[in-house]
Write a structure and sequence with these properties.
The chain is built from 16 helices and no strands. The chain has 369 residues and is mainly α.
Length: 369
Amino acid sequence: MAAVFAALFWVLCISTVYLPEWLHRTGLDTAQVALVLACATWLKVPLTLAAGYTADQLGRRKAVLIVGSGVVMLGFPLLFVVNGYYWLCLLWAVVGALTSTMVPLADSISVTAVRREGLTYGRMRMWGSLSFLLASMLGGLIIRHYGNNAVVWLLCGGALALFLCVLLLPDYNSRRPMQPDLSLFPVLKIPGFVVFLLVAATLMASHAALYSLSTVHWAAVGISLPVIGMLWATGVVAEIIIFFISARVIGKFSPWSLLFIAGVVGLVRWSLTAVVVDVVLLFCIQSLHAITFTFTQLAVVNFIARKVPEEMTSSAQTIYDSCALGLIFGLALYVSGLLSKVDISFSFWAMAMMSGGGGLVAVYFAWRE
C-alpha cells in the first residue's frame, strides 16, 4: 500500500504542481488552464462513482485499480503528440480523471487493511506525502535543466511505476460483496453521511485555486520553479508530520471537530494567500496545509471507518472523492479561473469563503456531538 501511494502521489504532484505551468507555456491563458483541469474533475465524477460501485458489487477492488492504472500509463505519452486547446481538454479529461479515481480506490483498500490487519492509515498514506515532497523538490530542478517536456517524461515514469505497484497489491476481496439495491448507492442511506460528505468535500475543494493557479501566480511575480517546488514541499512536510501522528489526532478529535478546525484554518490560509507574495511568509502559509488538507482527509477516513460497513467502503470513498475532487472541485476550478481574469487574488478570496462556510456547518455538528 505504501508503494502504491508513493507512485500515485508522484504522478499527482507533477500534474498538480507543474502541469498547469506546462499548459500555460503551450499558449493557454490562466482561464483556459483552469478549464482544462476542470474537465478532468467533471469527468471523474461518473468515472469514480462507477469504479467504486463496480468494485463493491464485484468485491474486486484490485482488479479495478489494475484497469485504471493501465489506461493512465498508456495515456500520458499522448501529451507529446496532442496539440490544441480542445484536444488537451479531451485528453486530460480522461487521463486526469482516471488518475484521481485511483486515490479513493487505494484508500478503500487501505481502510480494509486497517480493519483486518490493525494497521494505521496515516503510516501508509504518509509515503504518498513523502513521494509528493520528493517530486515537488526534484521536479522544478529537472524541468529547469531538461526543459518543459520533462514534465511529461516525469508523468510517464510515475504512471509506469504506479501500474507495477498496483500489480503487487494484496487482493483484498470483500468478504461479502455489496448486495444489489434499488437505489444506486445504498451508502447514502447511512445517517449523517450526506451532510458530512458535503461539508468535507467543500473544505477539500477550497484547495482548487491553490492547485490550478498558485504555480502560475507565483511564477508571474518572479518566484523560480525550484522555489515554487520548495513551497509545495513545505506543505507536504507539514502534512507528513500530521499523518505520522494521525493515531493521536484521531484519538483526540472527532471527525466533525477535525472539519471545524480545517475550516477555520482554511479561512485564514486562503485569505493570506490572496494578498501575500513575500516568499518567507508564503513558506509559513504553506505549512497550514497540515491542517486544511490533512485534518479533512483524516476526518473522512475516520468517519468511514466508524460509520460505513466494509462492503460499502469503496462506494463511500468514491462518492466523497467525486464531490471533493470532482463535482464541487470542478466548479471551484471554473469559478477561480473566471475570477483570475479580473484579479487572481479574487480566486483565493473565494476559496476562503468556502472554508469559512464549511467551518460554520462543522462547528454546529461538532457542538451537537
